[in-house]
C-alpha cells in the first residue's frame, strides 16, 4: 500500500456516505463502565500529548487509516453492518479513555452495543471537495476520549466505490492496518451473502496492554536495558546529514517525499545480498542510511531510533492495536564496503530489539532525569521504519483495489523514514519539517538511499566511501 497524507489524497468524486453511530448508542457508550485494563505506556503518552497539544493550541491529527476501492456501487447498509462486525472483532476498538486528573481510565462498550448506520452526505463533484470535508471531519471523529475512536465512510459510484477508515493511533499501527482491506471486505461479502464471516480468531490488544504493564513493572532502574538506553541518550544527537533548517525546540508542519527504491527483482537481489552477509533486509536499510549519513554529512557513526513490533505471541499476529516500540540503534559507518557497514547494522538491530520490552515512557518513570535527554533525542534523531507487507492477506490485490494507507497531518522537528516492501516494489517515504533547506536536503538524502540500495542490488557490494555518487546538499 502506498502511504498518502490526507492533504495529498484526492479520491474520485461521487456520493459521500458516512457510517455513523446512532445517538442512542453514543449515549450508552458515554455511560459505559470502567474497564480494569490500564492503557499501555504508548497509549498513556499518546493521550497526554494530545491533551497538551490541544491546550497549547497546536492540534494534531494523530490518526491513521486505509482507503480502498470495491467494484460497482457499494451497498452502504451492508457495509455499515460489516463495519460493526469488524469493530466487534477487535476489542481495543470497543474502548475509550477518560482523564481522572492523575492518569487515564479505560471504558469499554459491550459488543452488542455496536451499531453503524449509513448517513448520506450528498454528491460531491470533485475529489478535492471530499478531501476538504475529510480534513475537517477526521480529527474530531477519531477522538480517543470518546467512543468510537474511529470513523469510516464511502464514496459511491456506479463503476466502483471507495471505502475509507480512520482510527486514532492509540488503537492502531501499520501492521494492524495491513489487515483492514482483507478483513472488512470479508465482513462485507458475508453481509451480502447472509453468511458468517470466515476470519481467524485474534487476540485482544486490551489484554496485551494489561500484560505490558505487568511485565514492565518488573523492570527496575538497575536493569541492563535501562543502562543501555541511558548510555545511548547521554551520547547526544549527531548533526543531521542534511541541513533541515530548523531551530532547536521548535516544531514545524510536515511535508513528505515518496520515491520508489527497487522493483521486485532488485528487492530480491538486495535481500539475497543481505542474507549472504548474515543479515536481513531491515539491517540492509539501516546500512544504506548509514552510508548516506557518511556520504552527505561525513558521519562516522549512524544513530537513529527504529520501529520494532511487539507481537511476541501468535494470538497478537492479526490483532488490531498499537503493537510497536521505538528502540535505539547505533553502529559505525567507517568500513570500506556495504558489507562492512551491514555487519554493524545487524548487530545494532539485534541489540535494539533486545530493548523492545521497555518503552521510553517506562524509562522516564524509572530514571526521571533522562526525560530531557529523551525528548531531545526523540525529536531530532531519525525514526526509521521498515515493513515487509508482501505476505499480508490480499496484498497481491492491493494494486487492483487501489488500496493505500492514509495519514493525518502532523508537526515534527526531525525525520521520519519509512521503507515499505510490497509485492511489486519497495518504496521510500520521508516525512520532514517544512523548511526550504529541508526540502532541498531531503531530496538529496532520498536520491542517495535509492542509489546505494540499487547499486547493492546490481553489484552485490559497493564501496561505502564513493561520495561523488551523490551531490551534498548546501549548508546554510
UniProtKB/TrEMBL annotation:
Q: Indicate the segments forming the Condensation domain, all copies.
A: 66-352
Molecular function terms from GO: catalytic activity; phosphopantetheine binding
List, alphabetically, the GO terms of the cellular component aspect. Answer: cytoplasm
InterPro entries the UniProt entry points to: CAT-like_dom_sf, Condensation_dom
GO biological process: any one?
amino acid activation for nonribosomal peptide biosynthetic process
Task: Please report a single Pfam family linked to this protein.
Answer: Condensation
| Domain of life the protein comes from | Bacteria
User: This chain belongs to which protein, by name?
Assistant: Condensation domain-containing protein
Amino acid at each position: 500500500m502506498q502511504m498518502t497524507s490526507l492533504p495529498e489524497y484526492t479520491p474520485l468524486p461521487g456520493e459521500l456516505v458516512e457510517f455513523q453511530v446512532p445517538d442512542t448508542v453514543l449515549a450508552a457508550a458515554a455511560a459505559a463502565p470502567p474497564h480494569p485494563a490500564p492503557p499501555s505506556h504508548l497509549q498513556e503518552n499518546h493521550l497526554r500529548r494530545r491533551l497538551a497539544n490541544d491546550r497549547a493550541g497546536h492540534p494534531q491529527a494523530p490518526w491513521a487509516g486505509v482507503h480502498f476501492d470495491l467494484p460497482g456501487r457499494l451497498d452502504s447498509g451492508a457495509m455499515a453492518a460489516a463495519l460493526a462486525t469488524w469493530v466487534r472483532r477487535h476489542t481495543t476498538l470497543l474502548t475509550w479513555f477518560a482523564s481522572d486528573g492523575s492518569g487515564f481510565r479505560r471504558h469499554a462498550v459491550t459488543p452488542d452495543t455496536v451499531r453503524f448506520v449509513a448517513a448520506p452526505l450528498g454528491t460531491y463533484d470533485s475529489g478535492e471537495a471530499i478531501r476538504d470535508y475529510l480534513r475537517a471531519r477526521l480529527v474530531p471523529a477519531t477522538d480517543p476520549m470518546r467512543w468510537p475512536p474511529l470513523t469510516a465512510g464511502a464514496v459511491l459510484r456506479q463503476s466502483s466505490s471507495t471505502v475509507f477508515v480512520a482510527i486514532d493511533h492509540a488503537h492502531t499501527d501499520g501492521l494492524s492496518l495491513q489487515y483492514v482491506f482483507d478483513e472488512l471486505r470479508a465482513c462485507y461479502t458475508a453481509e451480502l451473502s447472509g453468511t458468517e464471516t470466515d476470519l481467524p480468531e485474534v487476540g485482544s490488544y486490551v489484554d496485551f496492554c494489561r500484560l505490558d504493564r505487568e511485565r514492565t513493572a518488573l523492570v527496575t532502574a538497575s536493569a541492563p536495558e535501562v543502562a543501555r538506553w541511558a548510555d545511548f541518550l547521554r551520547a547526544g544527537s549527531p548533526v543531521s546529514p542534511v541541513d533541515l533548517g530548523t531551530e532547536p525546540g521548535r516544531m514545524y508542519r510536515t511535508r513528505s517525499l515518496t520515491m520508489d527504491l527497487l522493483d521486485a527483482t532488485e528487492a530480491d537481489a538486495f535481500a539475497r545480498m543481505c542474507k549472504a552477509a548474515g543479515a536481513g533486509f531491515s539491517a540492509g536499510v539501516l546500512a544504506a542510511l548509514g552510508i548516506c549519513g557518511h556520504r552527505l554529512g561525513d558521519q562516522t557513526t549512524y544513530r537513529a531510533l527504529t520501529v520494532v513490533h511487539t507481537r511476541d505471541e501468535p494470538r497478537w499476529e492479526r490483532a488490531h492495536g498499537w503493537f510497536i516500540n521505538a528502540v535505539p540503534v547505533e553502529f559505525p559507518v567507517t568500513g570500506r564496503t556495504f558489507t562492512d557497514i551491514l555487519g554493524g547494522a545487524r548487530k545494532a538491530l539485534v541489540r535494539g530489539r533486545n530493548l523492545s520490552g521497555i518503552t521510553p515512557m517506562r524509562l522516564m518513570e524509572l530514571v526521571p532525569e533522562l526525560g530531557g535527554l529523551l525528548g531531545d533525542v526523540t525529536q531530532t534523531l531519525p525514526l526509521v521504519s521498515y515493513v515487509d507487507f508482501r505476505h499480508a492477506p490480499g496484498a497481491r490485490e492491493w494494486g487492483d483495489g487501489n488500496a493505500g494507507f492514509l495519514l493525518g497531518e502532523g508537526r515534527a522537528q526531525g525525520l521520519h523514514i519509512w521503507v515499505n516492501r510490497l509485492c511489486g516494489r519497495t518504496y521510500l517515504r520521508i516525512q520532514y519539517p517544512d523548511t526550504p533547506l529541508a526540502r532541498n536536503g531531503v531530496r538529496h538524502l532520498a536520491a542517495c538511499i535509492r542509489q546505494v540500495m540499487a547499486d547493492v542490488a546490481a553489484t552485490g557490494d559497493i564501496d561505502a566511501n564513493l561520495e561523488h555518487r551523490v551531490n551534498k546538499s548546501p549548508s546554510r
